[in-house]
Amino acid sequence: MTVLIINGPNLNMLGTREPEIYGALTLPQIEEKVLARLKVAGIEGVSVQSNAEHEIVDTIQSAVLKGVDFIIINPAAFTHTSVAIRDALAAVAIPFIEIHLSNPHSREAFRKHSYFSDLAVGVIAGFGVDSYLMAADAAIKHLAN
Ligand code: DQA
User: Fold this and answer.
1) Are 48 and 7 in contact (CB under 8 A)?
2) Residue (of 77, 76, 78, 116) closest to 97 by Cα position
3) I need a labelling partner for 46 at 20 to 30 A (CA). Which of 7, 18, 31, 62 fits?
């Protein structure tokens, strides 16, 4: 079983980016925790980050060929803008969880709309790094069923 974790724009800056909102951990530190959680369950995790919409679309399209069973995605700012990434997820029909470190619903009005939530198996937001770990646990359960 393979779980693909996709991290959108500016998440490469975690650790220094608005730590009061996103926490003090860097993306590699978060990835290490999530990949370890998946590994204990016998699942191979692959984590990618991109600031480019077309690269994320390409990654999702190639996930089918790579046999990805489940996707965990933090689309970051593309959550609120990207029909292209939404369409890619709909096209490949790989089940996915949408995650956010912060709770977008408690922030600016433009963050309240997501192009992903209605297609997602579920949405986890507002728990910092634990959003990633909760999503890993949910993916493990989903794949076990
Ligand atoms: C985010 C929330 C988004 O609104 C924002 O654009 C991000 C990060 C989060 O993880 O809290 O870049 O997805």
Assistant:
1) yes
2) 116
3) 18
Nearest to 28 by CA among 38, 15, 39, 37: 15
Give whole-number Cα distances, 20 to 15, 16, 87, 121, in Å: 10, 10, 32, 29
Distance CA(115)–CA(97), nearest Å, equals 13
Q: Which two tokens stand for residue 54?
A: 């077309």
In the chain, which ranges are E strands?
2-7, 44-49, 70-74, 96-100, 122-125
CA 102 to ligand 1 center in whole angstroms: 6
- pLDDT tens for 80-131 read 999 999 999 999 999 999 999 999 999 999 999 999 999 999 999 999 999 9
pTM over 0.85: yes
